[in-house]
Each structure stands twice: as structure tokens, then as C-alpha cells.
Specification:
The structure holds 2 protein chains of 2 kinds. By secondary structure, chain A is an all-alpha fold. Chain A has 8 helices and no strands. Chain B folds into 5 domains: about 5-55, no CATH class; about 90-180, Phosphorylase Kinase, domain 1; about 185-405, Transferase(Phosphotransferase), domain 1 (Orthogonal Bundle); about 410-475, no CATH class; about 545-735, Alpha Horseshoe (Serine Threonine Protein Phosphatase 5, Tetratricopeptide repeat). In chain B, helix 7 (about 195-215) runs antiparallel to helix 18, helix 25 (about 555-565) packs antiparallel against helix 26 (about 570-585) and helix 29 (about 640-650) packs antiparallel against helix 30 (about 650-660). The longest helix of chain B is centred in the middle third of the chain and has 43 residues, at about 450-490. Classes of the chains: A mainly alpha, B alpha+beta.
Chain lengths: ~180, ~750
């Protein structure tokens, strides 16, 4: 049994340190894979985060380990890690573009429809932070779906809720978040 | 963050499940029950939802295309060759069962394609397609296994064979295919400056390949230029269709929850997708979906563009895209070209070896219609088989009239009404009703009394629409069987076709052109085998279908049907058939039709009632044939009225009609044989027994010989089989008549 499997099981027993370790492990792996990919492929090559997360799973755990519970913990951690990576990445680029120092997009001056992909991601993140404070359950669904690239079925499994709940909450979350973003402009 | 009440949320979610705007409006009215505040809150949510949907769809693609330009630091990159973690490139040099991966050939929507070497049992190069991670490998392989036997049956020079499938060590599914080196068909045509004719000829080959697969029960489901590769072999362009069976294996995943996952999960290009595929109902896609995609392919080959722009479709969001595919009429190919800018137009025409005006006029008319027929939203109105499609293109190339016709204005209007009423209303009712079923919590918010009444009504509606749905499903099944029969007929597998048609209890209304022919061909074949009862059943079914068509030529079907009914010994049914036939045609102004009906009804001595019923029709036929220029008389002109006079007992007049007609040319001999038999009957009745016997002995031999020929050879060299059978029946009557003294 390898480290990750142990970690995954520990997460299942809700050991907080394990959760952090798992996040760190997945985060590092995703970054490493992305970096390798970037170094090899031609410049301007884009990455498919969903594919990356799945590959990380195969890489770290292997598909032989089919326990849904482990899978759920892993993908939960991967969604968080991917979110962090994407946001850091987008912020760094935005900072470079605006001469540095700025860590958050000024949505006051932003036309939603004219947002660049990076700004788009930052906008979603901003709204998601709000939602997290207010309705953590919905926020978790958004994180898993949006940043983790999980399907509804996977989200349902992951959170132990019904498929229908996922669909409804995701719809309502989108409405809420969009309303918030629009009210800010 | 502004929050909505649970009631507002419940109504909003329920309303979103009702796709039809009118139905949704009605739902909202009921649900909000005059509460303007509630209504406006829900409306606000709905409008936010629409924008939010777009925003998040775009966000999703932003995530997917995120450029992660990490500035690599030393510690993050492992030294080259030191156990790379890059799963994709890792494949090179590895082994998958019997296959050694050699090099990467390309990347598609589902994964990467590699060139590989098979080592066992034969050494050859193959293509291996490895599905990208994130797909459910187990069910992909299961679905592929389910179709594997059928796939193995495909053997066609223009189809790349799928050889094998399995999973990699890390659990990713892969498919092994015949290695095809070639350009995608559109690129090939452009690079070789193929003109329209060359493109059409190439396209016909593609149709034949698809037809072959359809005959084996395989639907491709993902026909598009990148799946049709063309190579030049000995100066001839050879297309190869790749990826058969793979779309089905991979796509199942998409259909599980179309409402929400669709937009994010969508793979492939929507431009080639048929409206019914876009519906994502999954279970109801048949071979005609491929016909649609072939139509898009032909559209692009001719005009350089697809009917709907792929990018626009993708950006418009899932619902909008489905709506477009389902409802929007694309411009005809020639119109598409006309709408291009001058530079684009010239380039596009240049690639087709033509000047723009020439190309446009070449497409206008037949080619436009052919393409548009394949692109019909209603699959019943498309070509029913790839072969039928190819044949129409062939007809165009040979300057023969094509089957495809521009839709008339009435047809368009009908289509609009039908689309909105039946299909959508039924679908929306089902949706609303489902909601009423499980969304009890939603309904609890409504005034209880009203809710209960509503529910009762909805249940009743749902039951009705379920019944309607069953009917529609049965019809769809019957249509499918008819199409299958048509395919068997085109392969001359009549026994199989017969079995297929036999299983259909009620023929569906308005089957396809091919389907109608199937009934006829099978009926004819059975008749040529002397299997009269079965033939009669096929023909009676055909009669049901023909009922809708008052066109004169269908009376040939009536004639054949009358003959097989008599031969199968079903007197009562024949009588009934005659009566309804006369009733159906009593207002015909077509003399030929009246003549055919008349003679068919007189095949056996009719009873008094029928004689009376036939009188006006006989008068019409007499008028018609009397007025016919003697030079225009043909072999059969004298039969209807001659036989009528005979049945009325006017033997002199009957003989006179027959003699006149014998002067006219008869290419097959069947008409003359019939006329001579009627003459012999008249002779008997007037006591000229010797003359009658002489006449009969000759005729008898000819008829017996021809009937045998038709049975043995089964071809049309001696004219219609039922004309000969007609003579045969009368001849039997004549031989049975005792001299009248």
C-alpha cells in the first residue's frame, strides 16, 4: 500500500493533517505534471485541467484502486488544488499585465462579456468566495464541478447526495453567483 | 448576496424543466397564481439563469483552455528520461497486448491516435486510438463489446476495419483500427481541385460504404470529414470511413444527464449532428441520423461550409444549439455561396475548378434539393437509405430527374404547425407531469384545492400523451421495419424482406418512398412464386398506404391486388375490395384509371350490386376509349369495355371492342392473349364453339409458357406478371364454360 492510499484512508477518518497532506501532494503533482507538459510541448499549448486531474489520479493512485471513497477524497482534493493553481496562474498573469502588485481583478471596471479567460476564472472565484461564506454546500458543488471538472454523478458520489440535488443546487448557485457579479458592476 | 425564498427557487427550477416557452408561460401563470411579486422574482431568476448559463459555459471553456505558463524551476522538472510522468508521450515505445506503439499520429476529441505495429498473428501496422482519461472505461468497453460481432461482419473496401479493443494498464480504453493514410475528404478535394462532378462521384462511394454498414446494423453516428480519409490509388480517389462503432461506445456517457452535463461534456463537432442526436435522447437514433450527417458532408463538399457554423453553434449554448438544429432551416448550398464575400466566393469556387456564377447555377435546383432532402429535420422525409441518397446523386449525374423536390409552401406550413403542436406539446406535457409527480414539495406551496384539481387534470393529460407516445413509438418501429425491408429488397433478399413486412400489424401513415416500393416488390416476388395468400396480404397493406394517393398510376397496384386476391381464392375479400375500390375512384376523371378499376372488378363475374355500382365508371371508360385516336390505341384499351360488354351479355359489342384493340401493338403479348380469351368467351356464348376452341388452344399455350417464364426467371422481360395472370384467370373461366347449347 503506498503513501497516497494511506493518506486517502486517513482522510476518510477525517484526520485533518491527512487532509492537508493530501491537498499538498495532489497540488504538487498537478503542478509538476503541468510544468513537464509545458516544457515539452510547443509554446502556447493549452492544458485540459480535467484531463490533468484524471491523469494525476492514474499517476498517483492507479485505476486499480477503485474504491469510490478514495476516489471521492482524491477528486475533492484535486478540485481544490486545481482551483489554487488556476487562480494563482491567472493572478500572476493579470499582475504582469497590470504592472504587478495587483492580486485581484477590479471587477468594477470589467464588462463581463469582454472578460478574458483568465479574468473569467477570477470572476468565478470571487463569486465563489462569497458563496462559500453564505452557502458552503452549494459552494462545494461549484468547486467540484467548475474547478475539478467532475460530472454531476461524480459530484453526487463525492458529497453523498442525490444526483437531482446536485443539478438543482448547481443551477441555483449559478444564478446566485451571477447575480452577485452583476450587482458589482 | 441577494437571496430568493424557497418558493421562488422551487418555481424557478420547475419552470426551467419546461422547455417550450408557451408551456412555461402557462406553468408560471398557474404557479404564481396572480402573485405579481412572486412572478417578477421568478422571472428575474429565469433571466439571470439564462445569462448565468452562458457565463459559466464560457467560464468552463476558460478553465479548459487555461494557459498554464509555469515558469519552470529546476526542482519541478525531472531530468529528461528520468521516469517521466507524462502519460501521453509515455505511450510511445510501450506495448499494448500485441501492439507496439510507434508514433503519435494526431489528437481528437476523445483521445490520441498512434501508429503501432501488430506483431501477432500477423506483422502489420495499425492505428491505435487511446481514449483520454476521464471517460468511464468499463462501460465504453462493454458498449464496444456489445457491438463487436456486428463490427466484425463489416467487410467493405471503403471502410477501415476496427480490429480490436481493450484497456491499457492504467485503465484507459483503446481501439485498434486498420491504418489509413489519407487526407480528410474535404481537404483532399480542395487540394486536388476536384470539380462538383468529381466530388459527387467520391461522395457516392462514401454512401455505399455507409450503406454497407447499415445493412450490417451498424450506425456510424459521427460522420464528418475527419472520419473519411481519401487516398489516391492508381489514379483513383479511394475514400475510407474510419471510427465505426467507436462513437456509440464513447457517447453513451453523454446521454446520461443531458440537461446539465451536455454543455460541458460535449465532444465532437455539432455541425454534423442530426437534430435527433442533438436531442440527446440517445435511444432513438437510427440509420437516418447518418443520412443527415452525409447531407452535411455533401453540403460542405459543394459549398465549402457546413449548413450551420460550428463555432456559432458551440457558442450559442446547448439549448440554443438544439433549437437551431431542430427548427432553423439552413440556407440551400447555392444560397450559402451567394452570401459569401467576393474573395471567399472566388477562392471557394476556384477550389472547385469553377467560376462563382457557374458553380451557383450548377447547384441551384437539383443539387440544392438533394442536399436539403438529406437535411430534413423530420427523418421520415429524408432519404431513407444511404443507397437511396447515392442513387439520387447518380440520377443527377446522369441528367435524370431526381426524387428530391423543393418543399411546397403548404408543406412548410404544415411542418411548422405539426412541429409546434404535436411534438412539443406532448413533450412539454410529459415534463410538466413528471414534475407534478416527484415535485410534490413544489406543489405543496400552491393552494391545496387548486393543486389537487390541477394534478388530476395533468394526470389525465399525461395518460393521453403517453398513449399518443406509444402510438408514435409503434409507428416509428413499423417504419424502421419497413426500411429494413427496403434494404433487404435492394439486396434481393426477398424472403427476409417478406418476413420483416409480415411482422408489421398496421402500416404507419406516410411511409417513405422506398418503403412503399418494398411492399410492392415483395408482393410481386411472392406472386411470381405462386404464394398468392402472402402476396395478397402484402398488397392489401399496400392498398392501405395507397389510399392516400389518388394518382392514376397506383391503379396498377389495384390491378395486381385484384389478381392476387382472386388467385388466393379469397372471394369474399375480393368482392369487398372491388366495392371499396369503385367507391374510392368513382369521381376519377382519369380514363386509364377508370379502365383499370373496371377490368379488375370484372375479373370474376360480378354480382348484380357490383354491376350496378360499376355502371357510371364503365360509361366513363367507354367514353374515354371511344374518343381515343385509333393510332393511340394500345393493346389493353379494348379490355375494360370489351369485358364490360361481355359481362352485360352484349357479345357482339364485346367482340367488336376486342377486335379493334387487337389491331394495336402489344409489346408483351399479354394484352392480346387477354383479348383473344374474351373473344373466345363471346364465341362460346354465341355458339361458335369451334372458333372458340381454336382461339383458346393457341392462347393457352402462350399464356402457360409465359407464366412459367415469369416464375422461373422472375424478370420483367414479358411485361407485368399480373397482366399475364389476368389472362390466365379469364382463360380458366373460358375453359370451364360449357358450349351454350
Amino acid at each position: 500500500m503506498n503513501d497516497i492510499t494511506l493518506l486517502l484512508q486517513a482522510t476518510g477518518r477525517s484526520e485533518n493533517h491527512a487532509r492537508e497532506d493530501l491537498f499538498k501532494l495532489v497540488y504538487d503533482e498537478l503542478r509538476r505534471m503541468a510544468a513537464v507538459r509545458m516544457a515539452r510541448e510547443a509554446a502556447g499549448q493549452t492544458l485540459q485541467p480535467t484531463a490533468l486531474v484524471h491523469e494525476a489520479w492514474l499517476q498517483l493512485v492507479g485505476d486499480g484502486n477503485r474504491s469510490w471513497e478514495n476516489r471521492a477524497h482524491f477528486f475533492g482534493a484535486a478540485a481544490d488544488a486545481m482551483r489554487r493553481i488556476l487562480i494563482d496562474n491567472a493572478r500572476r498573469k493579470a499582475a504582469l499585465k497590470h504592472g504587478g502588485g495587483q492580486s485581484r481583478v477590479l471587477i468594477e471596471n470589467l464588462e463581463i462579456s469582454a472578460a478574458t479567460p483568465d479574468e473569467h476564472i477570477l470572476l468565478v472565484n470571487e463569486a465563489l468566495e462569497r458563496l462559500e461564506a453564505e452557502d458552503p454546500e452549494k459552494a462545494r458543488i461549484v468547486t467540484l464541478k467548475f474547478f475539478g471538472g467532475l460530472t454531476n454523478e461524480e459530484v453526487a458520489e463525492n458529497l453523498g447526495v442525490g444526483l437531482r440535488t446536485v443539478v438543482r443546487q448547481w443551477t441555483l448557485a449559478k444564478i446566485k453567483m451571477f447575480r452577485y457579479l452583476r450587482s458589482q458592476i | 448576496m441577494n437571496t430568493n425564498s424557497p418558493l421562488e427557487e422551487a418555481i424557478c427550477l420547475a419552470a426551467l424543466e419546461v422547455a417550450d416557452p408557451a408551456q412555461r408561460e402557462r406553468f408560471l401563470e398557474r404557479a404564481c397564481a396572480g402573485d405579481a411579486c412572486l412572478r417578477s422574482a421568478v422571472e428575474e431568476m429565469l433571466s439571470l439563469h439564462q445569462d448565468a448559463q452562458k457565463f459559466f459555459a464560457r467560464g468552463k471553456s476558460a478553465v479548459a483552455s487555461a494557459q498554464m505558463d509555469f515558469t519552470p524551476t529546476g526542482s519541478e522538472i525531472p531530468a529528461a528520461g528520468a521516469g517521466s510522468s507524462d502519460a501521453v508521450d509515455d505511450q510511445i515505445g510501450t506495448r499494448l497486448g500485441h501492439y507496439k506503439i510507434l508514433q503519435k499520429m494526431g489528437e481528437g476529441g476523445w483521445g490520441s491516435v498512434y501508429m503501432a505495429e501488430q506483431e501477432h498473428p500477423v506483422r502489420r501496422q495499425v492505428a491505435v486510438k487511446i481514449i483520454k482519461p476521464g471517460m468511464d472505461s468499463k462501460s465504453i468497453i462493454a458498449r464496444f463489446e456489445a457491438e463487436r460481432q456486428a463490427l466484425a461482419l463489416m467487410d467493405h473496401p471503403n471502410i477501415a476495419r476496427v480490429l480490436d479493443a481493450g484497456t491499457t494498464e492504467s485503465g484507459r480504453p483503446f481501439f485498434v483500427m486498420e491504418l489509413v493514410r489519407g487526407l480528410r475528404i474535404t481537404q483532399f478535394c480542395d487540394e486536388n481541385n476536384f470539380d462538383a462532378r468529381q466530388r459527387l462521384e467520391l461522395f457516392i462511394k462514401v454512401c455505399h460504404a455507409i450503406q454497407h454498414a447499415h445493412l450490417k446494423g451498424i450506425i456510424h453516428r459521427d460522420i464528418k470529414p475527419s472520419n473519411i480519409l481519401v487516398t489516391m490509388i492508381d489514379g483513383a480517389a479511394i475514400p475510407k470511413v474510419i471510427d465505426f462503432g467507436i462513437a456509440k461506445a464513447v457517447e453513451g456517457r453523454l446521454t446520461e444527464n443531458p440537461m446539465v452535463t451536455a454543455c460541458e461534456q460535449f465532444v465532437g463537432t455539432p455541425a454534423y449532428m442530426s437534430p435527433e442526436q442533438a436531442e440527446m435522447s440517445g435511444f432513438d437514433v437510427d440509420t437516418r441520423s447518418d443520412i443527415y450527417s452525409l447531407g452535411v458532408l455533401l453540403y460542405e463538399l459543394l459549398s465549402g461550409k457546413t449548413p450551420f457554423d460550428s463555432k456559432v453553434l458551440m457558442q450559442s449554448g446547448w439549448d440554443e444549439m438544439r433549437k437551431t438544429l431542430r427548427e432553423k432551416e439552413p440556407p440551400a448550398p447555392s444560397t450559402m455561396i451567394t452570401s459569401m464575400g467576393p474573395t471567399e466566393m472566388r477562392t471557394m469556387a476556384g477550389l472547385r475548378h469553377a467560376e462563382p456564377p457557374k458553380l451557383i447555377s450548377q447547384l441551384k435546383g437539383d443539387l440544392d434539393w438533394i442536399v436539403m432532402m438529406a437535411l430534413e429535420k423530420d427523418r421520415n422525409r429524408r432519404y431513407q437509405t444511404a443507397n437511396g441518397f447515392a442513387m439520387d446523386v447518380q440520377r443527377y449525374l446522369k441528367n435524370e430527374p431526381v426524387i428530391a423536390r423543393p418543399p411546397s409552401r403548404i408543406y412548410r406550413l404544415q411542418k411548422l404547425v405539426k412541429r409546434n403542436k404535436v411534438v412539443f406539446a406532448a413533450a412539454a406535457v410529459v415534463a410538466v407531469t413528471l414534475l407534478a409527480g416527484f415535485g410534490i414539495s413544489t406543489w405543496m406551496f400552491f393552494r391545496e384545492h387548486e393543486a389537487r384539481r390541477e394534478q388530476a387534470q395533468l394526470r389525465e393529460k399525461a395518460e393521453r400523451s403517453e398513449k399518443r407516445e406509444n402510438e408514435l413509438r409503434q409507428q416509428a418501429e413499423a417504419r424502421e421495419q419497413i426500411n429494413q425491408a427496403a434494404i433487404f429488397v435492394s439486396q434481393e433478399k426477398f424472403e427476409d424482406a417478406n418476413r420483416m413486412l409480415e411482422g408489421i400489424k398496421t402500416p404507419p401513415p406516410k411511409p417513405s418512398f422506398d418503403g412503399v416500393s418494398a411492399y410492392r416488390s415483395v408482393g410481386d416476388w411472392l406472386a411470381s412464386q405462386g404464394r398468392w395468400a402472402e402476396s395478397a396480404d402484402r398488397y392489401l397493406a399496400l392498398m392501405e398506404i395507397d389510399k392516400l394517393d389518388k394518382w392514376g398510376a397506383v391503379t396498377l397496384d389495384y390491378q395486381a391486388c385484384g389478381v392476387v386476391l382472386v388467385e388466393s381464392g379469397r372471394r369474399e375479400q375480393y368482392k369487398q375490395f372491388c366495392r371499396s375500390m369503385v367507391a374510392g375512384f368513382d369521381e376519377t376523371s382519369n380514363g386509364d384509371a377508370a379502365g383499370r378499376i373496371l377490368k379488375t372488378c370484372l375479373l370474376l363475374p360480378p354480382d348484380e350490386a357490383l354491376m350496378k355500382q360499376l355502371k357510371p365508371m364503365a360509361a366513363k371508360a367507354e367514353d374515354f376509349f371511344t374518343g381515343t385516336d385509333p393510332k393511340q390505341m394500345n393493346g389493353w384499351s379494348g379490355i375494360p369495355v370489351g369485358l364490360w360488354c361481355y359481362r352485360c351479355g352484349d357479345y357482339a359489342q364485346a367482340a367488336e371492342w376486342c377486335r379493334r384493340s387487337l389491331d394495336a401493338e402489344d409489346k408483351t403479348g399479354a394484352q392480346h392473349a387477354t383479348l383473344r380469351t374474351i373473344l373466345a368467351l363471346c364465341d362460346y356464348q354465341t355458339g361458335r364453339t369451334n372458333e372458340a376452341q381454336l382461339e383458346l388452344s393457341q392462347t393457352r399455350e402462350t399464356v402457360a409458357a409465359r407464366v412459367k417464364d415469369i416464375r422461373d426467371r422472375g424478370d420483367g422481360a414479358f411485361g407485368y406478371w399480373y397482366d399475364w395472370q389476368f389472362a390466365q384467370i379469364l382463360l380458366r373461366e373460358a375453359l370451364g364454360v360449357q358450349p351454350a347449347h
